[in-house]
Every structure is written in C-alpha cells, then in structure tokens.
Amino acid sequence: MQIPKTINKLIESFEKLPGVGPKTAQRLTFYLLHVPQGQLDIFANSLSSLKKDTVVCENCFMIDEKSPCSICSNKSRQQELVCVVEEPLDVLAFEKNGKYNGLYHVLHGKIDPLNNIGPDEIYIVPLFQRLKTQNIQEVILATNPTMEGEATAMYIAKKIGELKTQNPKLQNLKITRIGRGLPVGADIEYADEITLQRAMEGRSEF
User: Fold this and answer.
1) What is the mean pLDDT of residues 61-66?
2) Beta-carbon neighbour count of residue 174 at 10 Å?
3) Which of 36, 105, 198, 202 is positioned for an S-S bond with 180, CB 3.0–4.6 A?
C-alpha cells in the first residue's frame, strides 16, 4: 500500500525532530488524524507562530516575546550576577528550581571542535561586551559537565582573566563554576571516576 503524500510529508517532518524515529513519526502522524479539526488548527497555529512571535533577547540571548526579555527587564533580580548556560532550556531548569535570582547569558551551544563549532559560532563575545558595559560582579559558569562544556567554561574563564588584566574596572569580578558531584539518590559504586573526583573536591564541612 502506498502512503498518501500528505501523510508521508508529515511523517518525514516528524522524523527530522531530535529523538523521533520512523515508527514514532508514524504514530504521531496517525494520532493527529484522529484529533478534532479545531484542536488540530490550534496546534498548526502554534507551530506557525513559534518563530514569528518570538525573538532573541538583545542582552542575554534568551528566547522571549520581547527584547529585552522578561528576566533582563525585571529590576528585582540581582543585576550583578550573570549565570552562563549553554541553551535556553537550561534557563528554564534554573527558573523552575526558583533558587537563583540573577541574570543569564545563553551561549546557544558549546565549543565543539569535532563539529567545527568554535567561540565565534556561539554567543561568547557578547558576554565579554556585557562585562565591559554592565556592573557585573560575578559570572557563574553553568555549562554542562561534559568535555565540551568544560572546555567552554575554561575558555570563558581564561578570556575573562585576560580582560581583568586589561581593564582595572573588572579587577573585583568573580568567576565561579557550579558545583559538580554525586546527585541526590545516587549510589557511589555506580559513579564514574570524574564524578567522584568532583564530589571529593567539592566537599564541605558537615
């Protein structure tokens, strides 16, 4: 049996999404066939407006409906703190936690030489511009604890160190890295060597 072109095109579109294989794409497509037309129209309109009604914040590069974004525009947040993350989803994770009340800087990626992604391919340079023009006292490096995330954090820390030697106004700028170690509920016997090392290095008085 030959699948109708309309259905096949949607299946192919779903297959392009991360983590969606051919079978999942087929299931999603045929599920949508049984959805009421009104609900399907709402879904289609949401997809259509996804890019049209969102912008990248000119300050932190978070995705929002306006620029500057709602976080950068919120004067009740700690303006002197900037948390550097890889992706917008990382901001959502911190915001859901509710324990951080500073600003963000979204890189939209990480340094990854194997995939030809260098510092110029992500939003690293604008971070340094913010340090020169805004009253930032601490940069929190919250890139992922992967090889690429660590390399990105090290690169940023090195460049900020160079900026501090060139600019007297940045002498008191603090660079910190988020804590890394064993997650709550984890078994030590299953932890990898690097995680155990980080946990030991990050120990605190009990």
Assistant:
1) 96
2) 12
3) 198
Q: Which residue has the tokens 């391919």?
A: 121
Question: What CATH number is attached to the domain comprising 32?
Answer: 1.10.8.420
Give the confidence band of 146 by pLDDT, cuts at 50, 70, 90.
confident
Using an 8 Å Cβ cutoff, are 139 and 84 in contact? Answer: yes
pLDDT for residue 205: 66
Statement to judge: residues 43 and 78 lie in one domain: no
- For the record, the structure tokens of 115 come out as 């995939």
User: 172 lies in a domain?
Assistant: yes
Q: Taken in order 114, 139, 84, 194, is the CA torsion positive or negative?
A: positive
Q: Where are the beta strands (DSSP E) in 117-203?
A: 138-141, 174-177
SS3 60: coil
What's the pLDDT at 168? 87
What pLDDT is attached to residue 36?
Answer: 94
Question: Three-class SS of residue 85?
Answer: strand
Phi/psi at 35 (nearest 5 deg)? -80, 140
Tokens for 204, please give them: 């605190």
Closest CA to 127 of 98, 100, 103: 103
Cα distance between residue 170 and residue 148, in whole Å: 27
Q: Which domain holds residue 194?
A: 63-201
The pLDDT assigned to 169 comes to 87
Question: Which secondary-structure segment (H or E) carries 149?
Answer: helix 147-166
Structure token pair of residue 184: 């709550």
